[in-house]
Write a structure and sequence with these properties.
Layout lengths: L2 H27 L3 E7 L8 H4 L15 H9 L1 E7 L4 H10 L28 H7 L3 E7 L18 E5 L10 E2 L2 E2 L2 E2 L2 E2 L18 H16 L11 E6 L27 H26 L6 E7 L24 H4 E2 L1 E4 L7 E8 L3 H9 L15 H6 L9 E6 L5 E7 L4 E9 L4 E9 L15 H16 L22 H10 L9 H7 L11 H11 L9
Parallel strand pairs: 1-9, 1-10, 2-13, 3-4, 3-9
Antiparallel strand pairs: 2-11, 2-12, 4-7, 5-6, 7-8, 10-12, 14-15, 15-16, 16-17
Helix pairs in contact: 6-7
């Protein structure tokens, strides 16, 4: 036997394997980091670079200073037609799943502290795919996607590391929700931020946005893991700020009397809101500066957007020149500022592509080269090619959104066709009847939705109404709605992190293995065997004399 001939193929195979290992490692090293930053209830007008486009308008509002976001926009791609749901929870669920929240039963829902619901556990979350691809995954900020059991919380949905709060609407200085501490690190209350705790550290920042930027920088410096060759993994960092959501709170030294042009703020609410937005901008600047200091900013995709439109009036925000506000289906409630910054691959510019929060998961999967491990089909579209080339394409399907009033008896719907025709529908329901008001706009020619075309396009109106009706039928009959009043006897837990552990300890371990049943255990009936289930459920109530329902 010729030993040299026998050994040669083995050596070649070994060399090939080593080469493939090197190539694979280099490919992995080239995978970009991802940082997703989300504002909460930010007005579409309220970024400096955007407001300056409208300064010649006679009724233009005051301008808020946001130099760091202005720079990200100047060096990145401004997505001018980015859409979200009208409220917090559905938008975040759309982003993480790439799917429409009507199918999950939470399109109309904001998860309040007294609710035990969540995004169905059968839904696959974007950080789970990044985690499986070898990324370090971290979340610093507001969750708002389920807080009753650990499986609903960030560490159960793809994040290696979590610092932040489970709920919304908390105090920016006390870090409490319903008077109970809601600030934790990996399941343990962050006692160092609470003055009444022995572990309190007065050297730490105490204002919400600065707490989050401090913790994000600390994670970037200290918490990322090393590979065998001492090179750090790529990372997926999610930083959802609570600002500038109510309550309107800011350090007194940040609240000014005038805007950057010397114009007095219109109201005290706008003055405080402006301070909150500027503080958030400062916090974002600190995170970006850390990326620059580590020499990794050019290798990092940074995306910024707001979860919905701003709350005008009492909330201090402005969506000028768009019509409407948070919670409504006009563009002021669902068309939000969005920036994608990735110097290595994206040329600065403006892109008018219709894009939604549902598109982020499939788009970033392509941008980073990871495999999306979702089992349920994406509803969102992969738009990386369009973003990279600065082009647009018609969407494959209409964008459809809905919400219910936090206080009141109305539902609000929007159907946005790929050509820019938009139907806005308001459904007012009482015990006696249902009143439907419909409007039609061309949001390409009329972005302020000032000219109602309803009645001029009967065929189009009928088609859009059919789209909306079919979309509404997809909602599971056990889906949630916003419940602003807690059930009788509800009390906030003494500590939200502790409560999460206590509730989770009450579940049987074998429950966790039956993912097809988990949606029932955790609050939502996600699977509708019969797509007409909602319709027939409503008919049952109608026969019982609950009300008159009109399906047209």
């Amino acid at each position: 036997m010729n030993i040299k001939k026998a050994i040669a193929p083995v050596m070649m195979l070994s060399a090939l394997s080593a080469s493939m290992a090197v190539v694979s490692e280099e490919a992995q090293a080239k995978q970009p980091n991802v940082v997703v930053i989300v504002a909460d209830d930010l007005g579409s007008y309220d970024l400096g670079f955007h407001a300056k486009k409208f300064q010649q308008a006679e009724d233009a509002p005051t301008v808020i200073s946001t130099p760091n976001l202005d720079k990200l926009a100047e060096e990145g791609v401004q997505m001018t037609r980015f859409y979200t749901s009208p409220k917090c929870t559905p938008t975040r669920a759309e982003m993480f799943t790439g799917r429409n929240t009507i199918d999950m039963g939470i399109q109309y829902a904001t998860i309040y502290p007294w609710e035990q619901t969540s995004v169905p556990l059968s839904e696959h979350f974007m950080p789970e795919s990044f985690q499986a691809a070898g990324y370090d995954t971290a979340m610093i900020g507001k969750w708002h996607l389920g807080h009753t059991y650990e499986r609903q919380a960030p560490l159960g949905r793809g994040f290696d590391y979590f610092f932040g709060h489970l709920n919304t609407n908390g105090d920016y200085f006390k870090h409490t929700v319903q008077r109970s501490p809601d600030l934790q690190r990996n399941g343990v209350t962050a006692h160092e931020y609470f003055p009444d705790r022995p572990e309190f550290n007065p050297e730490l920042p105490n204002y919400g946005p600065f707490v989050l930027s401090h913790e994000a920088v600390q994670w970037l410096q200290n918490e990322r893991t090393d590979k065998n060759n001492n090179k750090k993994n790529p990372f997926f960092l999610y930083v959802p700020f609570k600002a500038p959501h109510s309550p309107l709170q800011a350090p007194a030294e940040l609240i000014t009397e005038t805007d950057e042009n010397g114009e007095p703020w219109e109201t005290p609410e706008r003055a405080t809101y402006a301070a909150m937005v500027t503080a958030m901008d400062t916090a974002i600047g600190e995170i970006v500066e850390e990326l620059e200091d580590q020499g990794i900013k050019d290798d990092t995709i940074i995306m910024f957007f707001s979860d919905n439109g701003g709350m005008i009036g009492s909330g201090g925000a402005s969506n000028f020149p768009l019509k409407g506000k948070k919670g409504l289906a006009y563009d002021g409630g669902i068309r939000v500022p969005a920036i994608i910054n990735y110097p290595k691959k994206l040329k600065p510019g403006i892109n008018d592509q219709f894009m939604s929060a549902m598109d982020i998961f499939p788009t970033f999967a392509t941008a980073t080269g990871i495999e999306a491990l979702n089992k349920k089909e994406f509803v969102g579209e992969d738009l990386w090619k369009e973003i990279k080339k600065g082009k647009t394409k018609p969407r494959e399907e209409s964008l459809i959104y809905g919400s219910n009033d936090v206080v009141g008896d109305k539902h609000h719907f929007a159907v946005i066709r790929p050509d820019g025709m938009k139907m806005v529908q308001t459904v007012r329901t009482t015990f006696e009847e249902q009143e439907i008001t419909s409007e039609l706009y061309n949001i390409i020619d009329d972005p302020s939705e000032s000219v109602d075309l309803w009645g001029t396009r009967p065929q189009l109106q009928q088609e859009m109404q059919e789209e909306l009706t079919e979309w509404r039928k997809r909602r599971p009959w056990a889906g949630g709605i916003s419940r602003t009043v807690p059930q009788a006897g509800w009390r906030a837990p003494a500590d939200w992190a502790v409560e999460l552990k206590l509730r989770s300890s009450n579940l049987r371990e074998d429950d966790a293995g039956y993912e097809d049943k988990m949606d029932n255990i955790y609050g939502f009936l996600n699977v509708v065997d019969n797509p007409e289930a909602l319709f027939f459920q409503d008919m049952k109530y109608k026969k019982a004399g609950v009300g008159v329902l009109k399906y047209e």
